[in-house]
Amino acid sequence: MRKSLQLSLTAVFAALHTVLYFISFGLWRNWGIYLEAIEGIILGPKIGFLAALLGSSIARMVKPDAFWMFGIIAEPVAVLMAGSLARAKWKPVLAAYVIMLSAYFIHPFGRALPVWTILDVLFALFLVYPAARFSKKLFKTDIKHLSMAVGFISFVCIATDSLIRIFLLVPCGYSLFPEFFPSFDGLYLVFVGAAVDSYIEDAIVVIVSVLAGVPLLASVVKLKILERKYD
Asked: How far is the C-alpha of 80 from the C-alpha of 99, rounded, in Å?
C-alpha cells in the first residue's frame, strides 16, 4: 500500500471510528465496535491499530466517560488482532487469548463469576486458527469463502474486544476501584447483565461485517487498491 494511501485510509477510518462513538445508542458498547473487523482486514494490524487508537482516543477526549480507558485499549487491540488474522497470523492472537484467559481464571473473581458469561470468548479461542486459515488467500478468493473468512474474523474480533475489557476489569484490578464496582456483588450483577447484551452484540457485529464488509472488500479486490502478501 502506498504511503499516501496509508495516511488517507488511516485518517478516514479514524474519523469513522470517532463518529460512530458519538452516534452510539442501544447496548453497552459503542458503535465503533461494528467497524473494528473491517478496519483490521483492510488496513492490516499496524495501520488498523493506529486508526482505531486515534479514533477511540479523539472520541473520548471530546466526550469522556468513566470507562474511557477500556475503549481506548480494547478497540485498537481488537483491530490489531483482526488485522493479524486477515494476514493469516494466528499464533500471536492465540498467545494473547491464552495469557488473558489464564490470568482471568487464576484470579479469584474469575473463578467465582459464571463461566457462561464468557462463552463467546471461549468459543472465539477455538476459532482463532480456523479464522486465520480461511484468511490465507483472503484477497484472492470467491465471495462465499470471503464471507466465511470475514464472519470468523469479525467474531474473534468482537470477542477480543470483550476479553480485553474483562482482562482489565478482573486480572488487572479495575473492578476494585470504588468508582466502578464497590463490591464483588456489583461486579457479579454487571457481568451477568452485560453478558446477554454482549452475545446480542456479537451476532450484530458478525451480520454487519458480512453484509457491509464483504461487498466493500470485493470492491477493494476488484479495484486492486490493496495488495497483500502472506507467509
From this structure: 16
For residues 30 and 72, what is the distance between their CA atoms, to the nearest angstrom?
Answer: 12
Tens-digit pLDDT profile for residues 143-200 = 778 888 899 999 999 999 999 999 998 998 877 676 677 778 888 888 888 888 889 9
Distances (CA, A) of 229 to 118, 120, 156, 181: 34, 30, 22, 46
Q: 3-class DSSP state for residue 88?
A: coil
Degrees, nearest 5: CA angle 31-38-212 = 80
Answer for the pair 13, 52: CB distance below 8 angstroms, yes or no: yes
**What whole-number distance in Å separates Cα of residue 176 and Cα of residue 97?**
23
CB distance 101 to 60 below 8 Å:
no
pTM given for the model = 0.88
Helices 68-86 and 119-134, packing angle to 10 deg = 30
Residues 86-142: tens digit of each pLDDT: 999 999 999 999 999 999 999 999 999 999 999 999 999 999 999 998 887 776 667
Beta carbons within 10 angstroms of residue 199's beta carbon: 15
118: amino acid identity, one letter: I
